[in-house]
Amino acid sequence: MDGSIARPRPLLALFVRLLAAFALATMGMLVKLAGERGAHLMELIFWRQALTVVLLGAGLALTGRLAMLRTNRIGAQARRAFSGLFGMVFTYGAVLLLPLAEATTLGFTAPVFAVLIGMILFGEKIGPYRWSAVAMGFAGVLVVMQPFGALHEGVTLAGIAVGLVAPFMVAVISHQLQDLNTTENPWSIVFWFAAITTPVAAIALPFVGAAHDPVTWALILGMGLVGAAAQMLLTTSLRFGSAAVILLMDYTALLWASFYGYTIFDRAPPASLWLGAPLIIGAGLLIAWRERQLARSRVHSGE
Fold first, then answer.
1. What is the domain count for the chain?
2. Are 42 and 201 in contact (CB under 8 A)?
3. What span, in angstroms and rounded, lies between the C-alpha atoms of 233 and 13?
4. What is the Cα–Cα distance from 109 to 145, expressed in whole angstroms?
5. Angle at Cα 195 formed by Cα 29 and Cα 241, nearest 5°?
6. Could you report the per-residue pLDDT of 210-239, keeping only the tens digit for each?
7. Distance between CA atoms of 44 and 26, rounded to whole angstroms?
């Protein structure tokens, strides 16, 4: 049997996705701490990707599964890799420019952007349910960020812009991943993303690399290890359950981000976050529900 095929196990998928959300929030916290201690954005991205290459390659080699890294679509892998690198710049940039909870909340708008991209690039017809979700999602952004009034402490317009480009890129990449997943092994996609972008990020090291104290290096190492674990957990969760089923677990990252923001960065989330975040989360859930309904209707119409 192909190692990439797994029997659906919804409860395991939910648990693994829960761990992935925790890992992503923890990675964001470590990125922010390392950045505050002088680590440059591109330096963080290099170590994040390099450690993924080493860990994933070594793990598959030790288990005799290096053949899973074979790809017949290196061009498509490269396009996804460069999109992913661009997206990482904005994802990490949002964490560095905004408080952790706000950066995490803006990331939840990815499903909203995915709907708009599907309409603009692929001519998908958007009905009232998904238009309502789009409106709800952006209303949530306005409530959380309040860009036309007095900005919350630590929130800037530049940070908001970067924080919105990040989920837009996640939505773009999701379309690329859907295409790659039709022919490529998930581990191959993760590996080639890291392998292609590591030398690209390395080009910046002579210009941005700096000496760090042991604590900062420990934060960078931890960020890379947790980031690699998060990538593997995300991939594994999709082997055992559908994205529509496990989406809810992603939103638990906001709880961890708020916890880290309060305990480590001494910043309690403003009341507006707890008012706007449910709108953004509700928009994502409405889109997931509607996508599932549309998929079922397509299946029935084809019978």
1. 1
2. yes
3. 9
4. 13
5. 65
6. 889 999 999 999 999 998 888 888 877 777
7. 14
Query: Please, where are the H alpha helices in 181-269?
Result: 186-202, 205-208, 214-240, 243-250, 253-263
Are 25 and 245 within 8 A, CB to CB?
no
- Residue numbers of the domain that contains 105: 10-302
Say which amino acid occupies 187.
W
Distances from the Cα of 156 to the Cαs of 29, 145, 190, in angstroms? 19, 9, 33
Residue 36's SS3 state is helix
> pTM for the whole thing?
0.85
**pLDDT, tens only, 22-49:** 999 999 999 999 999 999 999 999 999 9
Residues 6+ apart with CB under 8 A from 278: 140
Structure tokens at 64: 């005799």
DSSP letter, residue 65: -
For residue 223, give both structure tokens: 């960020």
Residue 3 domain flag: no
What H or E segment, with its residue span, contains residue 211?
A: none
Residue 5 included in any domain: no
Q: Taking Cα atoms as reference points, which of 267, 268, 264 lies closest to residue 37?
A: 264
Q: Phi and psi at residue 217, in whole multiples of 5°?
A: -60, -35
* Cβ neighbours of residue 121 closer than 8 Å, sequence gap 6 or more: 175
The count of other CB atoms within 10 Å of the CB of residue 127 is 10
